[in-house]
Amino acid sequence: MSAHEMNHATPRLPAPLFVTGTDTGVGKTVVSLLLMRALFRRGMVPFYAKPMQTGCRDPYDTDSDAAFVYRHVPELAERDPAEAVGWCFRAPKAPLHAARDERNGVETEDLMRRLAILRATHACLVLEGAGGLMVPFTADALCVDCIRAADARPVLVARDGLGTVNHTLLSVEAMTRRGVTPAGIVFVASGKRPTPSDLVHDNMEAVAMLSGISVSGIVPPILDFHAPPEAALTVADAVIDAALGL
Fold it and tell me: Which residues bind substrate (predicted)?
C-alpha cells in the first residue's frame, strides 16, 4: 500500500489540530476550511469547532467563522454551524473584553470543560482560535493555554509578506516555551499585490532556519471557496501528513 493510500485509510488524527495565527486576519478560517476539506477527502470525519467567536452577533452572522466553514464544506451543508461555536460575542475584541462588554464573562473552568468534551467526543477535531496565541480568552487563560488544555497540535498561520519572520518566530517561541510543538506553519498570500517570490522564499528559509520548523506551504489567493484550488488543498495535506508523522 502506498503512503497516499495509507493516508486515505487513516480513520483519525492522533491529536486535535488547533489553528492559530501570528495575528488577527491572517487567514486562520481559510486554513481551517482547507483542513476540513482535506480531512474529509481522506475518508475521515472531522469536526470543526470555534470555542470563542467575537465580532459577530450569532453563529449565523455573515461575520461568523463557523458559518463560513460550514457554507463551504459540502459534507457540512445540512449541519447547523451553531454546534461549532462555544461562545459568541458582538464586539471585535479579545474574547475576555468582548464578553465583559456584554456582562457575560466566561469562567476558565467552563472553557476548559468545553475543550475537554470536544477532545473526548471527536476522534478528528479541528479547533480554531481567536486572534493570536497571547490573546486572553478569560481572565487567566490565553489562547495558547487552550491549545495545551485540548492536548492539541497547533497549526500556525502567518502572512507571507514583509514582517512575517518576526511575527512567526515570536509565536513559535511562545509555544515552545510552554512545551507546545506546532504540527506545521502555513503562509497565506496576503494583500492586494502578490508578495515578490524572492521575499517569500527568504521568509520561508529564515523561519525554517531559525525555528527548526519548515513552512508547510503557501495558500494562494482563492477566488471560489466552494472549489479551492488543488495547490491550496496540498498545503493542508502537508500539515495533516506532519501531524500523522508521515
Answer: 54
- pLDDT tens digits along 46-100: 999 999 999 999 999 999 999 999 999 999 989 999 999 999 999 999 999 999 9
Report whether 25 belongs to an annotated binding site.
yes
Domain membership of residue 53 (yes or no) is yes
Distance in angstroms (rounded) separating the CA atoms of residues 57 and 42: 34
pTM above 0.85, yes or no: yes
Establish whether 55 is an annotated binding residue.
no
- The two beta strands, 125-132 and 47-54, are parallel
93 is catalytic: no
List the beta bridge partners of residue 142: 136
**Is 218 inside a domain boundary?**
yes
Which position among 42, 50, 93, 114 bears the catalytic label?
50
Tell me the residue range of the domain where 112 lies.
10-244
**Is 182 labeled as ligand-binding?**
no
30 assigned to a ligand binding site: yes
Q: Are 195 and 161 in contact (CB under 8 A)?
A: yes
Do the beta carbons of residue 232 and residue 225 sit within 8 Å?
Answer: no
Domain count, the chain: 1
Distance CA 82, CA 79 (A): 9
**Residue 4 forms part of a structural domain:** no
